[in-house]
Amino acid sequence: MEIQLNLKSAGFVLLLVIGISANFTILMLFLVSAISDKKLMPTDFILTKLSFVNIVVVLVRGIPQTLTALGMQKLFNDNGCKFVVFTYRVCRAMCVCTTAVLSIYQCIILLPPSSKYVTLKQKASQNIHLIFIFLWCINYIIYIPVGFMYSQSEVNLSITKYTLNLQFCFVRLPDEASYTVYGTIFSFRDFFFVGLMVLSSSYIVAVLYKHNKRLQNMRSLDKKQGNSIELKVAKAVVMLVALYVFLFGLDNAIWMYTLNVSKVEAAISEIRAFLVILYNAVSPLLIIGTNKKIQQKLKCISTNAKYKTKETAIAHITSNKADTIS
Fold first, then answer.
1. What is the pLDDT of residues 50-107, one digit of tens each?
2. CA angle 164, 167, 170 (to 5 degrees)
3. How many Cα atoms are found within 13 Å in the side-chain-facing hemisphere of 297?
4. Continuous segment of H or E residues that includes residue 321
5. At what angle do helices 176-216 and 221-258 cross, to 10 degrees?
6. Numbers of helices and strands, H then E, in the chain
7. Geometric angle at alpha carbon 47, from 248 and 199, rounded to 5°
8. CA within 13 Å, CB half, 291
């Protein structure tokens, strides 16, 4: 039992370290880029939003879950639970929406360069901020009841069928009607955006397939280089979506199972939490590994750090020589 507890705790701690450091790296690099270049490309802006919600999800769900796995209890009072549950739910929802927006935007960018698509591409780039404001507002409104009305730190009576046990907090819905309505709304929202991800990614895959066939007969190196940037980004987006859809499928399969049992074991909640945090921790690694702009900035930082280290070492040696001579 102790070995199982240690492994579980170590797994959550590992996800915390990876998730916070990787997402923070992406967020800071793009913020520095926005300040220095005074401009942030739409794709970079979307990735910044994704990194931000990833960090929040890892913090508000990962840290309490880790502490609970270590045996700590009663982490929050009712107000603390309301804040944590509301923040977690909204940012988890924005994680779904942001991944979908990323795949849809990349799909629009890869549309044929004809006049009828130019306006669509321009509007998509110009209104990306408004799209996110709309998504934030919708998710805020949806989760106000669950976050502020039904969240509490503990239940006085036994846990009912309509109580969601997060282990460190409870979401206690009043009756079956509320449970069904909110479950339907949340599920519809998730499946809608995941469906958009799948459709847009399918188009991207089709474009990549046609491009690879075209490359077999292409002799011009310039054309190949000109298309490579957008297509590499598209491949990264497809991998990101595939990762999310896979973990989303596992999470919802477990969710469907919990709907058919009278009592949900604590391990089920832990597995679902692990799957959620896993995407928030692994997705930034995928972004770093496939995004050339991030890799170039990290390389520049590494080179500058080595240069400063050498300068410091040379200055130290020169200072020692001067002291010896004097």
1. 999 999 999 998 888 888 877 787 888 888 888 998 999 999 999 999 999 999 998 8
2. 40
3. 18
4. helix 292-325
5. 160
6. 10, 3
7. 45
8. 20
Q: How far apart are the C-alpha atoms of 65 and 69, rounded to whole Å?
A: 6
> Directed axis angle between helix 78-109 and helix 42-57, to 10°?
160
Q: What is the pTM of this model?
A: 0.83
**CA-CA distance, 222 to 228, in Å (whole number)?**
10
- d(Cα 324, Cα 179) in Å, to the nearest integer? 80
Cα distances from 118 to residues 205, 261, 273, in angstroms, run: 21, 52, 42
Question: Token pair 């709907």 is at which residue?
Answer: 259
Tokens describing residue 44 = 């970079």
Distance separating alpha carbons of residues 290 and 237, to the nearest angstrom: 9
Any idea what DSSP says for residue 166?
-
| 30-39 pLDDT tens trace | 888 888 777 7
Contact 81/115 with Cβ under 8 angstroms? no
Which has the closest alpha carbon to 194: 99, 105, 110? 99
Cα 264 to Cα 161, 173, 268, 305, 319, distances in angstroms: 9, 15, 7, 51, 68
At the top level of CATH, the class of 2-290 is mainly alpha
